[in-house]
Amino acid sequence: MDTKTLLALVAVALVVIALVFAFRKKPELPSAEEPEPKLPEKTSDKPKEAKPAPRLDHEDRASKPAAAKAPSVPAPAPEPAAPVKAPSVAPAPVAVAKPAKPARKAADAAEVKILERGLKQTRGGFFARLKELFVGKKEIDPALLDQIEEVLLTSDVGVKTTQKLLDNLKERLSRAELKDEDAVFAALREDALEMMSLPGGPIVARSGEPTVVLMVGVNGVGKTTTIGKLATRATHDGKKVMLGAGDTFRAAAVQQLEVWGKRVGADVVRGKEGGDPGAVAFEATTKAKEAGVDLLFVDTAGRLQSKAPLMDELRKVRKTIAKAMDGAPHETLLVLDATTGQNGLNQAALFRDAVPLTGIVLTKLDGTAKGGIVLAICDELQLPVRYIGLGERAEDLREFAADAFVEALFARESAGGGENA
């Protein structure tokens, strides 16, 4: 076979092979195109249907928290807050406190009557003069307040305390609260009671050790007599009492204390005439501890308050007592004579500067029209009045009660008696 024939055969073979491959690819083409019409559109429909499903899920989830919030919406918390309105219960205690006041006044009615008699001169001067100011007055005016000021000052109420009372009256007058005489007296009573209501009360004996009471004051105020009256009260209450005669410069004071000691059955510790008052106070305190007494009353010399050395001596007596017993003296009472008026207020200020005072005993209140000094002492010095003297007898030394005192001072029923007296 020659070359040309061979080449012709190869060419034919190649053509046959090409035709075979051409016919094989054609059946594959439709199969490759078929997937295009089959599921591209259908598969696209499915995701569209699948999308609403998740939306429903989100709505459900959103609705679930909403449902969770719904139970909290009832908010039981605000409902308990309504009971918090229980502060409205506060008026209840106020209502309970009001009936307590009349009960106390009823209990003190007897004391008020005693004080009315004892304050006869003070009421006749102070209260009666105030009452006269309102005769023929149909209304309260500022000019009347000037007249009230004069009455208060001449009753030894004191300048500062008088000004405070007047300021309160002027304030009420500006608010149209003082329409008549009764309103003025009610305002004065209220302010006076507030001024005198300081912590005080009678002497209270401690348990276990003696209660040491140091009595101070100038000569002539009734200091030694007051000790005797206090000792009488204590023994009537079943207390064991001892007396210390620390006024060594006056033989009469020592003798007077010994008389009281015999009356009440109390031992009296005394020293040499003109001896050291501190030594007597130390010995009395020591013996009181040994004897197991309840109360020891220590008298002191009637110091002239303007003499510095005498005040220094009083401080020394206090220190000596403290050496004999820790914490003593437990009470230091200043005795004042009510008849001295403003001079008594000056005395109180000086003694208070020298030694720490725990209270005032105001004597001879029945013999003066200057009982207003009680207001000045309480208001200006902030010292409580513990006892007041309304006579010579032991029982005439009364425990001071501010409400009973004010009630007696402003008692309208007996005003005429005071006036006429």
Which features characterize this protein?
eight-stranded mixed β-sheet, 421 residues, elongated, Rossmann fold, 19 helices, alpha/beta
Description:
The chain is of the alpha/beta class. The chain has helices spanning 3-33, 35-38, 40-50, 52-72, 78-81, 91-107, 109-118, 120-133, 142-154, 159-174, 181-196, 223-236, 251-264, 277-291, 308-324, 342-354, 373-381, 402-409, 415-420; strands at 211-216, 241-244, 267-269, 295-298, 331-337, 359-363, 385-389, 397-399. It contains 19 helices and eight strands. Strand 6 (359-363), helix 17 (373-381) and strand 7 form a beta-alpha-beta unit. Helix 8 packs antiparallel against helix 9, helix 10 (159-174) crosses helix 17 and helix 11 (181-196) packs antiparallel against helix 18. The longest helix has 31 residues, at 3-33. The N and C termini lie far apart (183 Å).
User: In terms of per-residue confidence, which ranges show pLDDT below 50 for 5 or more consecutive residues?
Assistant: 25-107, 414-421
Find the structural class using helix and strand composition.
Answer: alpha/beta
Work out the oligomeric state of the chains in this entry.
Answer: single chain
Strand content: 5-15%
Shape, please?
A: elongated
**Main beta sheet:** 8 strands, mixed
Q: Radius of gyration, rounded? A: 51 Å
**Can you tell me the CATH architecture of the domain at 211-405?**
3-Layer(aba) Sandwich
Order of helices and strands: HHHHHHHHHHHEHEHEHEHEHEHEEHH
